[in-house]
Specification:
Number of helices: 5
Number of strands: 14
Structural class: alpha+beta
């Protein structure tokens, strides 16, 4: 019996020893250690020597991952040059459009605006005149805008007129022609584009411009018109501008003469009372404007101001 139990213990011990050796072999293989599996331990390297380098097996290729990495741009690489063809791919410019743009670039350009508001001028009207001049030719663009007054009493020159949301998109009438004389400088122009009738009235089919140098006193952009107040004697103080400072500006004054169909209000007033006054741009302002308010007995006053600089 004792011999049989000893045999069984020896057999179990052998099995445990074999399993331990097998586990150590797995560990050694995982760590890529050198040496055989027959020994239960490995000899340490001699003192002062380096451990042997272990060869790492190559990473198997992964087509999906490699394609994704190749698609990522190299941040250190300089950007590829962009050509005009690349930037405008699919876009074309008509020759006539390009010719007109070049013509605009070579002509002298001046802008003048009329802002006509008040209780008796309902709804308010804004006319913007853009004059292009060359040595022998000229073109005039007239933009008409009919405003949306803030109240039933109309619009006043108190800053409301500078709110662009109160002025819908304009309609444009274009006049082209040639210089008629040098002194005084005059032009004969005919309507070539745009509607014959706008919210600002009937536009003439042809017109003449007679221009001469002039000087005008100009208020700062956005200057407000302050109506006068009644005094104890039932009199009224004079309306004033705020700020009141003015600058003397050189300008080109052009009087309008209409051929053919007479123009209705307010272009008629532009011809008869308020000439077009074109000044060179200054400090961001594209030109000057004539701002006039007609609110009957409250205020009837106008003045030249610099146009607000575009946003």
């Amino acid at each position: 019996m004792a011999a049989e139990r000893g045999a069984r213990r020896g057999s179990a011990s052998g099995r445990r020893t074999a399993r331990g050796r097998l586990a150590r072999c797995y560990v050694l293989i995982t760590l890529a250690a050198l040496g055989g599996c027959g020994s239960t331990r490995s000899e340490p390297p001699p003192s002062g020597s380096r451990s042997p380098l272990v060869a790492v097996p190559p990473v198997p290729p992964n087509p999906t991952r490699d394609a994704a990495l190749d698609a990522v741009p190299d941040a250190s690489a300089p950007p590829a040059p962009t050509t005009a063809t690349d930037a405008g791919a699919g876009l074309t410019t008509e020759p006539s459009v390009a010719a007109e743009a070049l013509d605009d670039a070579t002509l002298d350009r001046r802008v003048f605006r009329q802002v006509l508001v008040g209780a008796l001028r309902y709804p308010p009207t804004r006319l913007t005149w853009v004059l292009f001049r060359g040595a022998t030719r000229a073109r005039l663009q007239v933009f008409c805008q009919v405003g949306k007054p803030p109240t039933q009493l109309g619009m006043s020159l108190n800053g409301d007129e500078n709110d662009e949301t109160r002025w819908p998109a304009p309609t444009m009438t274009v006049y082209t022609g040639a210089r008629a004389s040098e002194d005084p400088r005059s032009y004969r122009l005919s309507a070539t584009a745009g509607p014959a009738e706008t919210g600002c009235g009937v536009m003439p089919g042809a017109l003449g411009l007679r221009c001469r140098p002039d000087h005008v006193s100009v208020l700062s952009a956005g200057a407000a018109l302050i109506p006068g107040k009644k005094t104890d004697g039932d009199e009224k103080t004079t309306a004033r501008w705020q700020p009141a400072s003015r600058s003397r500006v050189e300008a080109l004054r052009c009087d309008l003469a209409v051929d053919g169909t007479p123009a209705s209000w307010p272009v008629r007033y532009s011809m008869r009372e308020w000439p077009l006054v074109f000044a060179a741009p200054s400090e961001g302002a594209p030109g000057i404007e004539w701002a006039h308010e007609n609110s009957d007995q409250v205020v009837q006053e106008g003045g030249y101001r610099w146009m607000p600089a575009p946003h």
